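User: Good morning. I'm curious how pyridoxal-5'-phosphate would be positioned relative to this chain. Could you predict the structure with it bound?
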Amino acid sequence: MDYQLLFDQYQPAHSGLRLSQQRRLYGCLREAILNGHLVADAKLPGTRSLAAELNVARNTVLYAYEQLVTEGLLQTQGSSTRVAKGVCAGRHLVDEANSATRAISTRAQLTPWPVDPHGAFTAFMPGVPSLADFPLPLWRRCVERSWRKLSHKQLDYADVAGEPELRSAIADHLTTTRGVRCTAAQIFITDGTQQSLGICAHALANAGNTVWIENPGYGGAFQSLKAAELHVRGIAVDEQGIAPSESDWNNFPPKFIYTTPSHQFPLGSVMSIERRMSLIESAQRVGALIIEDDYDSEFRRDGPPLPAMQGLVEDAPVIYLGTFSKTLFPALRIGFMLVPKGLATAFYGMLRLGHLRGRSADQLALAEFLRAGHFAQHLKKMRRLYAARRDALVSAIEKYLGDSVTIYGGSSGIHLTIALAEQCNDLVISQALLAQGVYAQPLSKLATDKVLRNGLMLGYAQVDAIEMDKYVQILAQVIKAGTVCATTET
Ligand SMILES: Cc1ncc(COP(=O)(O)O)c(C=O)c1O
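Assistant: Good morning! Here's the predicted structure, ligand included:
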């Protein structure tokens, strides 16, 4: 074994780090054992001779050997040092992977998103508002003021339901703009809808209970429900929203139904008033709750937003989830749950057990942002901006893709979807687009079981109207190439 070569060529995994000679030799020998260059029972040189060969201090070699003996990769027999008999190449790496798998519960071993393009600008990234248009100086002033007013007492664990000022500002805002019926006592501040969903999944159903979700539907909700070990039944969606059949109600009654009535995620349909009433009545009949995820209703273009389901009847069996991720910015991590009156005390008790709260300053800043009218002003500006971007996207699609795709769901929110021709595979197209800086979420990835739709979600909030043609041209090229390939293959 040429130890000099081994030592010289060793590339530590974090090559930016400057390693001591000891750590370098240790890492180099460890890697050689794990990848099979030094096989089980192979005898290593004595510490003096290896030190001389490598031109390092003997202590350096002693350190490396001792460390590897402690890890069980080397054994000493009298004065000689050998690779441990039980070591076979790759075993430790495999063990590491296996023990990681063993350490993580099966509940948590869900499929992660294939890519996480957050952080860098990617055209058509759904679910992210126009970050560049957020009034940062105004927000900074609210945050600074709220920190200045904070007392030492408020550095303690905060109220698990959230800051009273924010809860009441949200209650007032929802009552006037969303037609909900509530008091601040029914509002619980969370770290966003994702957390609200996790709390609801644990609070409202036991492992194995059936719950419904829209199919296709929001992946974040699907993951939360699966993580709570619930039996998740996908319910098809039509142009009026979630469309459960009589058989669904009779044979698979749910503990709760997750739905996005104001702007179905991802297809964008708006649930009709008849469908809303019928869903409420049927839920009441079977004793189910409805989780209404009202994630982006503020951006409706065909008129004022339809009132929330929560306010349609007195004491509706609805938990209304709201978030500031789309209206303000996702990193804020503030959302809320509005629970029926009869559940507020139980939620309070449950949250005290496991969901201690803090970040009072952010909550108070947000309360001021709402009370001072900055929120309403920002929404007004963003509604105009998103309408212009949506219009630019629709006309670019018509120009470059014509009849080859069908557009759905552009009347509200900050995304729309396009349905692709059958021979065009949305997964393949989405992958090819990524290489060109365009992220278009494939609809088939949002299916709960049977893939019912083949298409792409296009988030337009961050794409300037004058840039829209450029990105849609890329989209069109990739879709056309994908269609031609598929046609020639068949
Ligand atoms: C349907 C839906 N609900 C909720 C959210 C927001 O979740 P959060 O408040 O955790 O950011 C998103 C974000 O993409 C979403 O698409």
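The chain has a mean pLDDT of 89. The longest helix spans residues 374-401.
Let me know if you'd like a different ligand tried.
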